[in-house]
């Protein structure tokens, strides 16, 4: 019995120690609720984790739908009258859809609906389609979104944790993106 228990403990450490050695935190059970720009786990249960080479192969083959969940900076509420506000440009993987603010740990109902509608639009309603979720490196937004998308019944979800940072480091093209439009009700609630 002790040998079996010792074997199980060693097997668990064989998984956890490499992740810790790489500076990767263990995979949590729940969504990340704060400090979204921090090292992410090496895994996400039920989701395939992609390297840049794998993400590029899927992209070149047009074998999946790429979903960028990078948050969009909100317009400051106290700008002086007459101040012109310009959104900071977002560069993403060509052909992606951008569904900003959908990777927070807790979403308002309208934002969750926005994510669901965006996924239906991107996949043509095919819940078996490959969905590749990304943001930037060390961005929990993409981890949360990929985890959440699995709960919507999408069976073929992949997570690209290096996101646009890894894509750019590999010398691959990024293009300026515009978010999928929201309804009037959704614009009043960022999360």
Structure description:
The chain is α/β, with parallel strands linked by helices and 191 residues long. The protein has one domain: Rhodanese-like domain (Oxidized Rhodanese, domain 1, 3-Layer(aba) Sandwich), CATH 3.40.250. It is 33% helix and 12% strand. Strands 1-6-5-2-4 form a five-stranded parallel beta sheet, with helices on both faces. Strands 3-7 form a two-stranded antiparallel ribbon. Helix 4 links the parallel strand 5 and strand 6. It is globular, with a radius of gyration of 18 Å. The C terminus is likely disordered.
Q: What attributes characterize this protein structure?
A:
two-stranded antiparallel sheet, disordered C terminus, five-stranded parallel β-sheet, 5 helices, 7 strands, alpha/beta, globular, single chain
Indicate the topology.
Elements: H1 2-21, E1 48-49, H2 52-60, E2 65-68, E3 90-92, E4 97-98, H3 109-123, E5 131-134, H4 140-151, E6 157-160, H5 163-169, E7 175-177
Parallel strand pairs: 1-6, 2-4, 2-5, 5-6
Antiparallel strand pairs: 3-7
> What is the domain total for the residues?
1
Portion in beta strands: 5-15%
Rg from Cα: 18 Å
CATH superfamily: Rhodanese-like domain
Biggest pleated-sheet summary? 5 strands, parallel
Structure, briefly:
This protein has 191 residues and is an alpha/beta fold. Helices cover 33% and strands 12% of the residues.
